[in-house]
Write a structure and sequence with these properties.
The structure is a homodimer.
Chain A lengths: L2 E4 L7 H11 L3 E5 H5 L5 H11 L2 E8 L7 H21 L3 E5 L10 H17 L3 E5 L10 H11 L4 E6 H5 L16 E6 L9 H8 L10 H10 L6 E3 L11 H22 L1 H7 L11 E9 L3 H9 L3 E6 L4 E6 L2 E7 L8 E9 L2 H10 L17 E4 L5 E6 L12 E2 L9 E11 L4 H12 L2 E2 L3 E5 L2 E9 L6 E6 L11 E7 L2 H10 L9 H11 L3 H9 L3 E5 L2 E7 L6 E10 L9 H21 L14
Parallel strand pairs in A: 1-2, 1-8, 2-3, 3-4, 4-5, 5-6, 6-7, 7-8, 9-12, 13-15, 17-21, 22-25
Antiparallel strand pairs in A: 9-13, 10-11, 10-16, 11-12, 14-15, 17-22, 18-20, 19-20, 20-21, 23-24, 24-25
Helix pairs in contact in A: 1-3, 1-10, 3-4, 4-5, 5-6, 9-10, 10-11, 10-14, 16-17
Cofactor (chains A, B): a divalent metal cation
Keywords (chains A, B): Lyase, Metal-binding
InterPro entries (chains A, B): DSD, Glyas_Bleomycin-R_OHBP_Dase, Glyas_Fos-R_dOase_dom, IolE/XylAMocC-like, VOC_core, Xyl_isomerase-like_sf, Xyl_isomerase-like_TIM-brl
């Protein structure tokens, strides 16, 4: 189906928006009137630009507070409407959105509203313009699409039809099934928006918190299914008011928006396979990943990370034959260290590798969803890795998993030590810090490209603000990616990323690591009094937890014992032992960690300020 | 009365919080349990630190999900409570907050809850601790202070009393008058928080959007009045969960918080003058300002501003005899230009002068409210200006207005030209850009120190995000300070400050300014089509508006015609003509202005990138 987007959904001047939508691949746009008023381009210039860019101008919007008024007000409203029709004509737009009256309605009557819409339709007809009437969720009298349809039906005018907006229907909890009874040719326009489940006044919810399909909690596939059942064949158009997207780069948001429509069509196609064939853009199928293949850390100097890994029982398993890359292994956990000649590049998570059932299928799916391709130099006899760049900049690669076999790329590493037995099972989760601008985009990206699903979001109070955490995962937990959005940082501290390794016996692992000199993140004594009090853990166990700076959590499903290392660059490691069917992340312990990390950072700044200036030998066991 | 604050209200580690609260002048604090758990100081160390700082530890909080449960759960809850009592004892805290059960309550019975609280009281008594029971607004069964009081009365235990929190009472719309019937000695603790009028689920409202008294919409003076009528003589304590204060500097937030309690006591004192004498801290009275005395702009080089002012008909009225400062006058508008030898200091609003009825009274009031003093070098025979530094860093001065006479400090300026007749009346408003961190603080600061009041906030959609605008003003409009919070800036553009001058005939002023070469902010043609359509303005008037880049607004009270200059540094000027009783700011036109300003900025960046490198002579009519 054709795709469209309201210009209010993205940032910038109107001409920038048109360029962004065309570049992303939209077929058309709906023009938000304030964008025209503020533009230094005439309506004729805007029309010509859209034509050159190959964009249809599908809708001009909105015309507000028209019907349900006394005759004197209506005369004034018709005069006002005519000015809008004139502008729409100059733009070459054939359909205008008329919202149900919010501010000036005084007459609560289907008959009066229908009559006034009919007369508006007569005026519109002289400009060959259609009027699409929409029930706003907060309309004064008309706030339900079923009533707006009754009125349009009663107006019975060829130029008067309906505009349906998923937000206005689903936010009110109205059953969308009655859409099926509306003739498709009377649905003049269809606007789509998702939204998170929030309990707040519907106007603020709508104006600030709409999301692109796939990022919220609405059943948009079901909604569109109802609309398509009517025979509707107009474009699927996005109208998303969102404080964040108003601030992000329009080119980027436009691609993100179109991805949401591709994903949505695929979902609808799954509901209506026979419909899909002709009209819906289906996406190549690919099963979600079934495990982590590797994590890559990049830095100018990775020696501090190597020290940590060695202390944690990882084995150096070879150097890549053509690249400045080393491989470290413990159990099924593979960590790739990539030394870059980039000055002051501090250690950070640069790439994640997934095991997938069919790499070619995942590649097709990623391409269909316009995921930006990650580039990796590959020589003739090396394994080709396909990958994409996630919204936060992390590269994500995939290889086909071959049951129990190590991946082929390992053969490219030479001179490694044979891997020792290890209590480490593999990578449990990778926690990625997200810029606030791309956090919603990341949810849709990981949902659509890799088939991950979003757990309920959590908030963690840190010493300098709330950290918002959103876990993306596979149902079986083989992939877990907590995405964190950190507060604005005022005191120079920051929230690092981390890699968590699952292990069999975390106490034994911690003991061995301490014997090798590991620098644990220190846990305050008060925490252990709290654990004893909260969970009734016995004194011996508490003493053991305290000895190794271990943290503890319990749920009805099981127990969770874990510890953290110091931070190197922007990364630290966590080791976790899941007992029973514990399925969480010790979220209640995260504030303890954030406080301890900030404490260390503050001490470091103090010792830097107070201490004598001295050169630290490269590779020394000191935090950078 | 004694003052206290919950440690959850401010940022940082627990010890930083204690230092901040003591430095601000609080008498005590209530300790939030998670702050202790995450602290690397033992309870005994925390107790000793508080003692040294002169802070009483008034409350330990919260103990959750205790009552309304089956006997087996209650036994486990008592064990958990005892651990908390032990920690409180080590801290030397005598009162513990117990919230009504949210998560685990299964028994909806006053009798069961009262019995369980009584047994909790018995246990607490062995630690000489009091239990303050609080009805949370989202309690499972107990969500109303009247019910929590019934239960406490029924528990009838000397160690079991009530905790009242203004948020939990007022957010639910419960009438606080019944507080008067509770014996004061059974109110064990009083927590105060304000909040904005929001329609959303009460838990999110409480956890993220609480404000300090005077910043929201609750009648806190009335609430405290009810509590004091009971004979309650504990501290007034603040418990404010707020996403912003969690991120701001704790020292700053603590002063801000204490100011809110000083202001609140003054409000309560006005309700209860007889009570005020002994117990309430009253603030020196001072009438609000009745006009702008001057605005000062500071820069390394003010010549671009001088060019603008000259084009706008201002008269250079002299150079200060001891400072690098010049005075420019038009009507009653006085602009002071202050040239600083600070490299790259671009023009910005550095100070505002107010006319006040009694400068000494305002000085006393500012001191009582702990407003930071602004320093200005003053020589022997110069007029002393008292002033404070507002939260955004703008200095605010005041002098006593002497009806119709120019202020005394003008005599310090020499060699000026005699002021010409001018259509300018005076300064209409000064629009100050606020950092998001201090926007709420600014509302309380201007309310309490200068007696301004807050209009309903507005949101202006700009091309790169929403600008939030909050007008602070006197009732008569003689002082108007729109405070703007700009979106996060991603593309290098920024929202400047501006000074608006009121004038008699804005068209004539614009005509004269254009003749002198003024560079207007250009308004797009489409805007004038919109004005004609929206307001039905006649063609001649529209042509005149268009000719001079004038903007237009109309309300039921009157009309508003205005124009903007180009931006110099971080400042531009606006000239406004208010016709009839128009009382607004042309907010609907602000998006046009924001778009035009961004357009100019983008062009400037482009011409800088594309154009030949050349030196611009200082003072040339080009934007920096």
């Amino acid at each position: 189906m054709l795709t469209s987007i309201a210009t209010v959904s993205i940032s910038g001047a109107l001409t920038e928006k048109l360029h962004a939508c065309a570049a992303a691949g939209f077929d058309g746009v709906e023009i938000f009137e304030p964008d025209v008023i503020a533009s230094d381009h005439s309506p004729e210039e805007i029309r010509a630009l859209a034509q050159r860019l190959g964009l249809s101008l599908d809708l001009y919007q909105p015309l507000r507070d028209i019907e349900g008024v006394d005759e004197q007000t209506f005369a004034e409203n018709l005069r006002r409407a005519e000015a809008t029709f004139r502008t729409a004509s100059r733009l070459g737009i054939g359909t205008i959105l008329v919202c149900s009256n919010v501010a000036t309605a005084t007459v609560d009557s289907d008959e009066v509203s229908a009559d006034q819409l009919r007369r508006l339709g007569d005026l519109a007809a002289t400009y060959d313009i259609r009027v699409a009437f929409e029930a706003l969720a907060w309309g004064r009298f008309i706030d339900d699409y079923r009533r707006s349809w009754t009125i349009v039906e009663r107006a019975n005018h060829p130029k008067v039809g309906l505009c349906l907006d998923s937000f206005h229907v689903l936010s009110r909890g109205h059953d969308p099934a009655a859409i099926r009874d509306i003739p498709g040719d009377k649905i003049f326009y269809l606007q789509l928006a998702d939204a998170p489940a929030l309990t707040m006044d519907v106007l603020s919810w709508s104006r600030h918190h709409r999301l692109f399909p796939g990022e919220g909690s609405f059943d948009l596939a079901g909604f569109v299914d109802h609309v398509l059942a009517t025979g509707f064949d107009g474009p699927l158009s996005l109208e998303v008011f969102n404080d964040t997207f108003r601030q992000t780069d329009p080119d980027r948001t436009a691609v993100h928006a179109l991805r949401s429509l591709v994903w949505l069509q695929d979902k609808v196609a799954a509901l209506q396979p026979e419909l899909a064939r002709g009209r819906l853009h289906a996406v190549a199928e690919a099963k979600p990943p079934n495990g982590f293949d590797f994590v890559e850390l990049k830095a100018e100097d990775t020696s501090d990370i190597e020290i940590l890994l060695e202390q944690l029982g990882f084995t150096p398993s070879g150097r890549h034959r053509t690249k400045p890359v080393t491989l470290w292994v413990a159990g099924d956990a593979r960590v790739v260290l990539n030394e870059q000649q980039a000055r002051d590049l501090r250690p950070h998570v640069s790439a994640i590798g997934f095991s997938v059932p069919d790499a070619a299928a995942t590649s097709h799916r990623a391409a269909d969803l316009m995921a930006p391709i990650a580039y990796r130099r590959t020589y003739a006899d090396e394994q080709e890795l396909s990958g994409v760049v996630a919204p936060d900049g992390t590269e994500m690669y995939w290889v086909t998993a071959t049951g129990g076999q190590p991946p082929g790329w390992i053969a490219e590493f030479h001179n490694g030590m044979p891997a020792a037995a290890s209590p480490v099972r593999g990578i449990d989760h990778v926690n990625l810090l997200q810029p606030w601008q791309t956090a919603d985009e990341a949810v849709l990206f990981l949902t659509s490209v890799f088939g991950l699903s979003a757990d309920a979001p959590a908030e963690v109070p840190g010493p300098t603000g709330l950290v918002r955490s959103q876990v993306m995962r596979t149902a079986d937990g083989s992939i877990r990616l907590p995405l964190n959005v950190a507060p604005h940082v005022l005191d120079g501290s920051s929230v690092p990323q981390h890699i968590a390794f699952a292990c069999r016996d975390v106490v034994a692992l911690a003991r061995a690591a301490r014997a090798r000199g590991l620098d644990f993140l220190p846990v305050p004594d008060n925490y252990y009094d709290y654990v004893a009090g909260r969970f009734g853990v016995d004194a011996d166990t508490v003493a053991e937890l305290r000895e190794f700076n271990l943290l503890y959590d319990r749920s009805p499903e099981g127990e969770f014992v874990h510890f953290y290392t110091r931070t190197v660059g922007s990364v630290f490691f966590e080791f976790v032992e899941r007992r029973g069917h514990y399925d969480g992340y010790g979220t209640d312990n995260a504030p303890i960690r954030l406080a301890a990390q900030r404490q260390r950072q503050t001490e470091r700044v103090r010792s830097r300020v107070a201490g004598p200036s001295r050169r630290v030998p490269s590779g020394a066991n000191l935090e950078p």
